[in-house]
Fold each of these.
Amino acid sequence: MAQSVNKITQKAEFLTEKGHELLNQGQYLEALEAWKEATKIYRQLHLDENVAGNLINQNLALQGLGLYLNACDLLLSALKIDTWSYFPTLNAPDKSSKKALYTAIYQVKPTPVNLLGLQNLGDILRLLGKLGESEIVLKETLSMAQKMTLNADISSILLSLGDTKQSMYERSSVEYRWIGELLFQKDTVTEIHQNALISLDYYQQINNTTNAPISIKLQAQLHSLTLLLDFDKWLKKELLSGNSRLTTTKTNIHRQIQPLIDLIIKNSSLFNELPVSQSAYAKLNFADSLNKTSNKQLQSLAINYTKSALQTAESINNQLLQSFCWGILGKLNPDESHVCFKQALLFAQSIRASDIVYEWQQQLADLYSQQGKSKEASYFYEAAINSLIQVRANLLGSNPDSQFFFYEKVEPLYRNYIRLLAADPSQNLEKIIQVNAHLQLEQLKNFLQCGRLNLIPLNNLQELPSSTAIIHIIDLDSTIEVIVQSPDRSLHHNSVDAKLIKNHLNNLLDIVQSFKFYSDNKSEIILHSQRLYDLLIKPLKTYFYSSGTLVFALDTSFQSLPMDLLHDGKEFLTQQYSFAQTVGYKIQPPKSLSKNQPTALIAGLSKKSPSFNDENAPKGLKPLPGVAVEVADIKTQIIDSKVLLDEKFTSLQFHKELSKNNFPIIHISTHGQFSSNAEKTVILAYDKVINILDFNNFIKAQAQFNENPIELLVLSACQTAKGNKRSALGMAGVAAQAGAQSIISSLWLVDESSTAILMQEFYKGLKNGLTKAEALRQAKLSLSSNPKYEHPYFWSGFVLVGGWL
């Protein structure tokens, strides 16, 4: 009997070792099966520690297959953690989540196997984008390991901590690039600086540990070099922008790069002491870093390291690794890039690795585009976009960093494709509109972190009013493309040098986002707005009527500017047209406001409340006593309405009202902010802020109660975050989450008295049968005719996004 048990144990040990061999060769599925079989045997033998060890091994195979959520679940099972669960959001862990996580960690017995499991849990949380949780797990694991004096394990944990801090640095860097809000950027600079230095310190601790394994030291050096090169580049940009406080840091970082490169080259034989596939990936990592230097000799050396990695990949028949090798060779060797990228693509497609297929398709598309081969470039841009859609569908819901992935990977791909289409002499304007619309819609879905939105193209509308023109403004950096769809649906195009536009655009944005906008000279506003009109609209003016509705599909840089500020030299365009904005020319399936006496939920906050102190609330808020007047005035226009004012306007009561009643109109008059960051797109209830994600949950309650959509959502007294250029994204996001036909909101905090008058006039217009857009225009005209409120500050900040009927 003992001999039989011994044979079974030997079989499990053989399968465990076999799994490691297969993992090193990149055969993840086969490794997973071997470890599953070994786990089954150890369970039969009631060897709990061996079971846990093989569950941890299975997690490594699942990581290799990209199944991070499955890997995380497996690790929690191995560690017997059932009191804490993972939620995919970008939020830092709150107090209750932290407490639950610490409690779960403290219940784990500090054995070598469990410490390995905890370290792997920290690693997988990093891959899932839960960086705060990853750091907590790894710090606690390090503390346990230090108490057990397991030095080898300590160096490995330090490597994981360095990698998590590097991921924090990378996230902050991307946030800094795509969120233009000034206050946010200032805070993020500090985060970037701190995260980079802490990460480098962890890697240095490994190099200072005499008995740290060679493989760990080499990885620490390679990861450190990657960070040093990127951080040095970021610091250079910051210094050029005038941030002189980082001069010393820049000097210290730059002087570390070359000595570290020399050290790795000197000890290059260490690459061969790593497991086979790990060695190849390490060489690719080093080659990529060498290519980022300006040293031609080092760039040439990078090719040698990549070719060596390719030989290894071929020897173990690792097709994923071969794809990476060929792709990097394509980047390193421009003369052979076409052949290399095609080889990389073939290997990636052979194993259906869509997460890298898109990259080689994009490289080929860009290459063909540079060569003037538009047909081939279009084919690969389309293919890359389709591959990316699949990749992002897998990322959504599992990794919150997919939000940043969009701005780094997805948006540039779409814009390069639009540039190609715009440069084509034949100019397929319909295709340009279609690709841009898809980009804007994907941008909105990315903002909301959702997979689907019920929006339809304006072209699908059967009865588009005859006086309606649709104007697309697309920013391609060097040019601004304007495409007008006339009332007869014909398309007309105007291309403008962006240099002629950007100065006027930025000056006008600075004015409207200034706290002193109301006192700015009206003639200066007209100067910039007239120039924008002359360049963008005037050349196409003959293709639409002299009155009616102008529907704007605006690109990012134009979204914080109300289009009715445009001036034709005689008057503001709001004198002639009503206005609406859409996201990529898509809206909710339209429906005119009910002719019956509508019901409304009217909520307002006129006094200082606990929500003013929320960390996500805008800074420097003051009470809005005029809100009480605004709410009372609207109540007189919509008699059948429910009012929640001040203490009655709590998040809970607001939720309750939406869940038990159907309100075609929801009017909220309170402080709020539109941001390109969903967490900071908020409205203030009395007790706390309600961000867009909370708001979505509230609206779902109404949807469950009644299938009728919200016909009109009005957010009064809100503002765009300073420096934000994606305000319409926040507004459209609120409307999309609410399933609202239309949303009207203010881009800046407007005077309370004038807002009360404007809103009263607006609802009076709706009651008299005007469309939403025309009712808003008439309200603005009525307000601006009052000498006290003729300045654009008082009336131009209100914009309509979505359906205008």
Amino acid sequence: MPYVALDWLGDHVELPAGLTAEQLAADLVRVGLEEEAVHGAAVTGPLVVGRVLALTPEPQKNGKTINWCQVDVGTHNVDGVPAADGGQPRGIVCGAHNFAEGDLVVVALPGAVLPGPFPIASRKTYGHVSDGMICSARELGLGEDHDGIIVLPRLGYAAEDLTPGQDAVALLGLGDEVLEINVTPDRGYAFSYRGVAREYAHSTGARLTDRGLPQSLGEPLPAATPDGFPVEVDDAAPVHGVPGCDRFVTRVVRGIDPAATTPAWMQRRLTASGMRPISLAVDVTNYVMLDLGQPLHAYDLEKVAAPVVVRRAAPGERLVTLDDVDRALDPQDLLITDSPDGTRASRVLGLAGVMGGASSEVGPTTTAVLVEAAHFDPVSVARTSRRHKLSSEAAKRFERGVDPRLPAVAAQRVVDLLVELGGGTADPAVSDLDRVPEPAPLHLPVGEPRRLVGVPYTREQVVGTLRDLGCTVEDAPGGADVLAVTPPSWRPDLTGAAELVEEVARLVGYDTIPSVLPAAPGGRGLTREQSVRRSVARSLAEAGLVETLSYPFVGTAELDALRLPADDERRQALRLVNPIADDRPLMRTDLLSTLLETARRNVGRGLPDVAVFEIGLVTRPRAGAGAAPALPPAVRPADDELAALADAVPHQPRHVAGVLVGHRDPAGWWGAGRPADWSDALAAARLVAERAGAEVVVSADTERAPWHPGRCARLALADGTVVGHAGELHPKVLENLGLPARSVAFEVDLTALLAGSDAAPVVATPVSAFPAAKEDLAFVVDDHVSAQALGSAVADGAGELLEDLTLFDVFTGEQVGAGRKSLAFSLRLRAPDRTLTADDVVRVREGAVAAARERVGAELRA
């Protein structure tokens, strides 16, 4: 996010005396630039100018030589008297050697706090009591030079203006607050002091000085000359139909003093704005970029051969960028190239708009530089930046849109600063390749802002606001009620009438838009799906599970951890074009692939008993689905376009999944507790089906990952549609995920449950006032017969008198024979209109036994 230093902003716009960062933030919020943070002073406490009166080198046993210094800090001396009046200077130990007696330096006195934070105090070291610290640029947060002490006259401060004891915090600007703002992607111009100043002027009416206009230079902008450094653009096949470069300005500055350093005021401004000072040439280009918003690049002229060619990468090309990374280039990358061996455009100098190459960078011996100021296609720069994971300051600006009329002015600013600060000479040769198309006017009906915003803006308000924005506004041919508006070059985001209306609403003031609450029509409440979803979530929470949310992105590693077979339909996932993480480019096809990671994270953080669930969408691509069509803006699409869009959207059913790890019932004084098992997962899945109003049939499933074969239940509707699974997870899956053994899970398709349930309202069953009769039946069946199948047979055979059926015992052993098991059910019987007789109970018993024998081969256990 951009940083705004108030003193730098004042170069562009008139600021009131005493303006604080908080007030600036409030003023900018009114026009849509949100405050991100206010950064306080970098240094607190006493930081003063000191004069080195004496310097005694003292070699140490460790081979290091320190300097024992006597430093005059004016009224901050030991006795509070300046050395000129006989005061006693402070003794300070310093390990640097780039200063001498008589130098004016920066001294942090005891009580100061430097960036870090690093508090300063008197302390004994190397046999002396060091009463403060002589500071380097890095220690003050002004740069990366740690070994070299700041000698103020070398940074451009006049010695006659410096006095021992003078406040160095104000001198170096270390006490200033800096505002960090949040800029939306469509307003790239606000990534500069020029753009922020313009927004401040819109908000407050302050007088603006546009330093990005040619007339702001004081002298006429030099025109292109035939002998300018030659530049060519060879982009015959642009990535998306737009040329990669339509403006390229070059300037040459010779005779730069390689020993010239960046002045302190510029280093301070760069540091306050979030950039690290490097060298004069690089700092000047960065300074102008932050000032005006135009990214620039400085090449060592001796390392560049004419002509410079802007082109796409060829297969197999590579580039070592300024961050010393060797990168394989993509054919869609836009490059800056030259031809040092005479072969046209054979060497890559940099990634256009992103980062330069190491082969032509400015170094400590550079005396002549080639300045580049260009305008590149935002889409090309954005794709290259993301492809190579290079989010440079230049790329941040180009991908949001840079003023194509700015390169010549920005290049001249760089030239002027290099001449002034580096002692260079501007070469009269100027190159300016300009293929920027003339902007087409946009047509805006005068009443459009009123229609879209609902505020009765007058014609004068609309026209005045757009002109303040920098637009050219005229009456469109053919009618006085339509305006022809030409946006300014720095606003590439203004592409239609709706964008112009948004600017009118923004600058007139969002606070002028009345808050009107639309009337809620009667008779509309939650849909059935919404009601069921809430009921499911509430019921699972009441059952002791905690609802969580997880990101719906997965990779092949997550699918492999679940041991999904290669032909499993859940591996047919939708791949994202621009994923948040490269290792998770797929949209999940089930919830457990992400929910199990949530459970693993909780277990890893010391929670042994975990019971979590999630309700969310999964994505199931349709076979043969085409690409989604581009729909026209501001009008209702045609029915066939909407149908094509619906066909392209993948199926996204809503699932419910849960994971239970450790104890289901905790241990305590009441007992040892009970670990969660497959029956808990099945009970939770049944609870979801019950809340959805669907009848499900449970059967064993031996081939469903990630569950354990033989310990997994399949849930299906009456028509055979499988809607979910529940049971114990496979040991290898638990090992892959780092979860405890015997963990269980369930997942059901809530969308399918709703489709297969009865949508009719639930009718209350009258409560019978007559007593109930109870009957227990124990059956012996083969091992493969499920309790669900036997229970269904018993219920059907019992008939209408059956009120409740409960399985209360499962037994295997010698008494029932090998391959057999005993299942015991408790039946509660009741009639709505009478007391049951013994004959009624006998008929129910006989019917249940007969049905069990006929359907599953059950025998009544003696």
Amino acid sequence: MSRFARSEITAVLGPTNTGKTHLAVERMAGHASGMIGFPLRLLAREVYDRVVRMKGRADEVALITGEEKILPPKAKWFLCTAESMPLEREVAFVGLDEAQLGADPERGHVFTDRLLRARGFAETMILGSDSLKPMLKALVPEAEVIGRPRFSTLSYAGAKKLSRLPRRSAIVAFSAEEVYAVAEALRRLRGGAAVVMGALSPRTRNAQVDMFQAGEVDYLVATDAIGMGLNMDLHHVAFASLNKFDGRRQRRLTVAEMAQIAGRAGRHQKDGTFGALHDQGPNAFTPEEVLAIEAHRVPKLEKLYWREGDPDFDSVEALVASLEAKPHNEVLRAAPEAVDLAVLKRLAEEDWVRQRVRSPLMVKRLWAACGLPDFRKLGVDPHSRFVGRLFGHLSEAQGHVPHQWFADEIQRLDNMGGDVETLAGRIAAARSWAYIAHRADWLEDPIHWAERTRAIEEKLSDALHASLTQRFVDKRTTVLLRQIGADASNLPVTIGPEGEVSVEEHPLGTLTGFRFTVAPEARAADKRMLLAAAEKRLGSEYRKRGQALIESTDEELQLGAGKMEWRGTAVADLKPGPNIARPRIVLDRALDVLDPPAKVAVQARLERWFADQIAKRLTVLGKLDEVTRDPQAGSPLRALANALLEAGGLLPRRAAATLIEALDNPARQRLRRIGVTIGTLDVFAPALLKPGAARWRRELMGLSAVPAEGATVLPRGAPGADLPYGYRPLGAQAVRVDLVERIARAAHDARQGRKPFAPDPALATSMGLTPETLARLMAQLGFRTARVAPGEPQRWIWQGLVAPPKPKAPPRDNAFAALAELKHG
């Protein structure tokens, strides 16, 4: 590695269409060996095909991505995704494309690691935006920075509606749903559009691009994947939206992201234009953004994300610690927890996993399994279960994935039926198995299975291309067809602001949340076609609403009447679970309209929200739940915690007397830290009596009455004047249990042994207690009245609490006892 440090390092920075990637490919081809890391699988494939043509032979060129590996034995030049670069290989030239992606929260740590560690022994070339310059000076000061101007002019063309976009335009959207909606609109308005998304396989993407390049369609609808160097003959780029969901939140694009995408317009010496579909509102460009994009001025990066690229495999703990280590350089920030690390931490909690990773080799194998990307976007929990099953096979016997499991899973995917979304979902699943197949040490016959998965992905890709073309390239007019055999899928279905569903102004019903209610008059025979059209339209609306629910804010979710609600619509029921803090959350049957991955994601969102609310609003219950699962807590404390949870955090002390007596001092101290008070008459958590917490507690316990908010004393018979609500009945009044304890402490502080004493009357008066209520309370607290002369204040004498009576043994000298012995003997 020492000679790597002496290699020439060049950073080529500039906007799009400056020939940076072309230069890197030419430089690599001039060396005896080389490697370039790209941000996209599609781009790596595109450059691989180009290098094969340049060299005239495929046996010296390799393609390495997560799901595709072409690795000839004599390979000299390697085209890879950044994640898949084989850094252990020594090559003369190393290039890293779009290095400014080191600032991306999700993948940035990979690009930063390659920026710091990937070196060719003769030449290293870093490609990226001008924004990267300060980071290079700080991290790679020895690099020679070269700026390159754009070959053509990029100018703002204003906002244009879809119907007025010029030919050879690309419309950029930021979700599959939005891409499909725009493509369908273009089919109706302009005859058709090609579709390009990062989730497409290279074969499908190339077929769609070829259709656009050949002039079969004049419009391309794409995600921001086109911003990463995919070369197409575009004259204009229109933004359908300027906001995107980045994996954590919905946000506006940065100027750098806008410039990267807009820069796809114009090619080599041809000028290009960019614009939006909206001239006002959040999806319109500001004048400042337009000026910055036209002048190619992007904000300089101040930080890059970093994670240890060469982690410690001595143990799982060491691996996690090294992956969570903080960077030493001030311009680096620790990367957010990625999916692979989240999966590793989940699996590390499993006893069976820890038993199998007792050597660095097995720790490394576990980490390799955790590196399987979540192509299907199922979320951490479902993906962890899949990776766990995979590692289970990799850590036993010969360490190979069972032939039958692999064969059965990919056989299920060998199905070319279904719509665009179904086929795209199968391709995403196929990518997981392709990734596994390209790990040479995970299968007994990896070459066979790699070919098998490639063949299935190609078939699915061809079917997806045909489905995309059929769906989005259709010049048939959208008129209301009533004759038998008419194609209802072309009918324009609209959903109004109040959920009213109609076709060509014919009302069909109402969509409330995820439940579609058909209007009675829409059931007539002549409306069947309209209902079929509505069903197709509702499918996309359900997906849209499902995604909105998955991405919902905490404020959009509520709890009421044993149900979880989203925007006022019930989406799940709370069913009995292990305890009140961990009920089962069962999705409403109306959500069956969502596909399985969406339902899993919704379930995860609702469970996360509920857990967050318990931690925020009912912290005591959450901590009691932790105690019940803590083997170090001791059985008496766990038993009391269970009893408290069953009673919603409030128990009469008599009912828990045996459990309380069994507690040692550490257990009592832990209860106090949690926020539980062992009172004279009750065991309770004062925090649960506050209005907000009390409302949630009532919801979880199914208590229907609503006490007056903030009331400390209630009239007997008033709503909630009972112990389950936190009020102890005392004659004609019910007193909140924390005030009962306050009076008890004041009385004990005032007394001197067993001498008669008079408690401060102001305390009871300020609470609104009547003399009768106070007398009943003092009696329950273990005091009796003392004789006093007429006109003197009432005095009390401490006589002690009466211990709860022990259960009497049944008599054994009668006929019933003898009968019982015969029955049980």
